Amino acid sequence: MRQRWVLAEQHPSEADALAKAARLPQVLAELLLARGITTGHAAFAFLNPDVDQLHDPFLMRGMDAAADRLEQAIAGREPILLYGDYDVDGTTAVVLLKTAIEMRGGIVRFHVPHRIREGYGLQASVLESACADGVRLVITVDTGMRAFSEAEAARRLGLDLIITDHHLPDAHDKLPHALAILNPNQPGCNYPEKSLCGAAIALKLAQAILERHAPSRTREKTLPSFLKMASIATIADAVPLRGENRVIAALGLKELRRPVGVGLRSLFAAAALDPASRQVTGFDIAFRIAPRINAAGRMDVASEVIELFTTRDAGRAQELAAKLERLNRERRDTEAFALRSIEERLDADDELRAESLLVLDGNGWHRGVIGILASRVVERTAKPAIVISIEDDIAHGSGRSIDGFPLLEAIETCADLFSRFGGHAFAVGFALPADRLPELKRRLRAHAAERLAAREPERVLHIHADLPLDRITPVLAGWLRKLEPLGHGNPEPVFVARRARLLAPVRIMKERHIRLDLAHDSANGNSRKAEGMRAVGWDMAFRAAELGLAQGSLVDVAYRVRENDHPDYGGIEIEIAGLEPASA
Ligand SMILES: [Mn+2]
User: What is the share, in percent, of the chain residues with pLDDT greater than 70?
Assistant: First the structure.
């Protein structure tokens, strides 16, 4: 498939000014400008996250009322129900708030709905039974922003409801009835950070009740330990890692180096990560820790995640971590099995493969993985994809999209067919009676064909800056490390070096990968013996052959900077992200 390079707009004069003001390499200034950082002060703050950069929780609308009511419940030893969501964000939010409330002497119960049996969101039946058990205060985390009828049920039952959520209010900005709503996205909230995840909002409430009680101890001791959980959620929930989110993520990851509770320790051990010997990165959390936590909610019951992170019993923690490990393996197998059948279908069916929007349905595909499957199909085909699982005559679907094809809009054209649907431009979920599937497919395909017909599927490679190979130094690598944690909103930089020369023949590894020895082709030719930069290209053997690369060839290379700690090949190298014939 074609790869299209998109070079970010460069701002040489602003970058020059910022580089001087903040004493940074020019290329780093360029990367910071792309993150909205324009002053030396802001650059310093970005590169040196600190607990003092966390905002005052009472800047959030509703925080005073929420903290007052919560403290009253703690003081009166009223049982408090925490109601979470089943993903990483929701479960870590419960853990965080439960721990904080119990530190202050409160009594906590919690409920996390079962993804398949109960589904997403607040359930009136759970409120009823909590009420019967003597609960008078319910706090939602990572959910509730559109729970209008359930909030009404809470009111009828005489329950006080505090909603903490980061999801957008409904299209008319209508809010559910509640004692307080904590959500920077609600109208009238002036909290400076709008893109907190659910667990980070729970963290702000925890911070509020702890800081009121013991301000300095909270900042120095208590808060940092809570940042571990909040950082895992912040990275897993894919909120942009800038502003307060970056502070939470960076400090939380740093905290993981210290001895942590038995739950986290068991989970890291199960994922073969040792935070004490190597700094845990955003990628470790996103690709190794979060999937294990999410496996509980996808394949079974998420409430065990909460037990894992709150137990003090090392044996029990190991048992639960082992169970997550098993569920994650099960999730991977389930996913691989369905993906194979999807690929076979695409291989066999030319007509299906030619569609601009791929709609794939199967009987009994596990509903916990259809969203992941849709993402995989998008990765492989560069087309929007919807994966549907049919169960008891109901079709449950999950879709993912590409740039320039807003999927929710597509779904909305079929609103009359669904029993429920929701989502945003890049991801949707829905359910409908299975006998309406042919109609749904027909209409979605027609809609997509109209909008995507002329488009050849392509993979876009975003390139952030020009960086000739001779400018890659250990000092620069050190600066690039200061951009960690990387992730959404703070992507790993991709650079381009123009007219790089191959100093040696292409080395093929395992028939698929390549190693190149590249050098910046300086104006004075090869008068000086050029020092080569080691480059590795995973799955690039085909591309190298296509371009006919040989010793002496000139190429434009898109790359990421890598530091390798291999005893023989240690040092800086580059990982090739794309190769093109040398530009003139
Ligand atoms: Mn969330």
Answer: 98
